[in-house]
Design brief:
It comes from Marininema halotolerans. The protein has 377 residues and is an alpha+beta fold. 35% of the residues lie in helices and 26% in strands. Strand 1 and strand 2 form a beta hairpin. It binds the ligand CC(=O)N[C@@H](CCC[C@H](N)C(=O)O)C(=O)O. Ligand L5K734KM binds next to strand 8. The site of the ligand CC(=O)N[C@@H](CCC[C@H](N)C(=O)O)C(=O)O has 14 residues, from strand 8.
Length: 377
Amino acid sequence: MSTSNLHSMIEVRRHLHQIPELGFQEWKTQRYLLDFIARLPQDYLEVKTWRTGILVRVQGTVGKRTLGWRADMDGLPLTEETSYDFSSRHPGQMHACGHDMHMAIGLGILSHFANNPVKDHLLFIFQPAEEGPGGAEPMLATDEFTRWKPDQLFGLHIGPDYPVGTIATRPGILFANTSELFIDLVGTSGHASLPHRANDMVITASQLAMQLQTIVSRNIDPLDSAILTLGKVTIGTKQNIIPGSARLEGTIRTLSIDVMDKIKERVSSLVHGIEIGFQCKASIDWGANYCQVTNNEALTRSFMDWAGSKGNVEVIECREAMAGEDFGYFLKEIPGFMFWLGVDTPYGLHHPQLEPDEEAIPIAIRLMIKYLETQAQ
Ligand SMILES: CC(=O)N[C@@H](CCC[C@H](N)C(=O)O)C(=O)O
């Protein structure tokens, strides 16, 4: 791929950045990707859509195996605060997790192979709803995916903490198990001056929030990794009304299923205790659950060795991250790996000022073209 073609993928990323859409609503994004794919030489391409996702197969010249590449597509419900002149045109929605970069990189690799097929088939997966409710698991079960199921599968995630020109990964667990957490509390609303006639959910929700924070510190072995974060609490309408309902929303992260089960058991007990102690009704919804991302040991080790010597990038063996990724569902069934792509920005993922260094786009495209060419038999 020529240098100017590689850099044109930065423009593609900028376009995608302006049209972030939430999980399973990525219709404009899908349209843009399909139009881009339609402009490529079609001789070796087969394209299928599934909901807002897309599968593109590049037929191999021999086609004994299929190697896959996955990019996720959705944005986040977040108001952008970057300095970009190509910022989001969708109020309250932003590509703050780098999926715009992931798609541009996927299209760049695909463009090369649409012009230069290799022996193996290649499958490009554009997957919706990674941020929730999760597109990987249902996509895996589709007839379209089953027919083209890859023998090996790879993917990346932008890594704000790593310099451009580096990648970071590890054999084994890379990302955590996750469970969403939604707790609804129902008491009795009332006049601010008559607290004895109401059942105040501000006090109840505050107590519960504090109790939930004792689980990791007091019930989990300090040598295990676990997080329980409450990211949103919704209570009340006005300063002089005692609110009769509250909703707490959060996420649980662990590096083992046993620890996840233990935390859920403790959440259930504490919520039950709150019901009794505060004479309210409470319900728990565990939302979307993602399984951990486990990189195949042998493939990852050999990729790391190869990338360090022939891939023109510096390879860092990193620690596990407590982020979640539904790519884990693919890797449960298909050997492969995911890696962090260094994009060097002070603002982390899900931050409204996230501005990943776009020079990482051509680096990733070049790296993966070379790797897939080396692998394709
Ligand atoms: C890489 C990344 O930031 N992924 C998200 C995935 C969402 C997981 C799920 N919906 C949850 O919040 O539990 C993350 O937040 O880690």
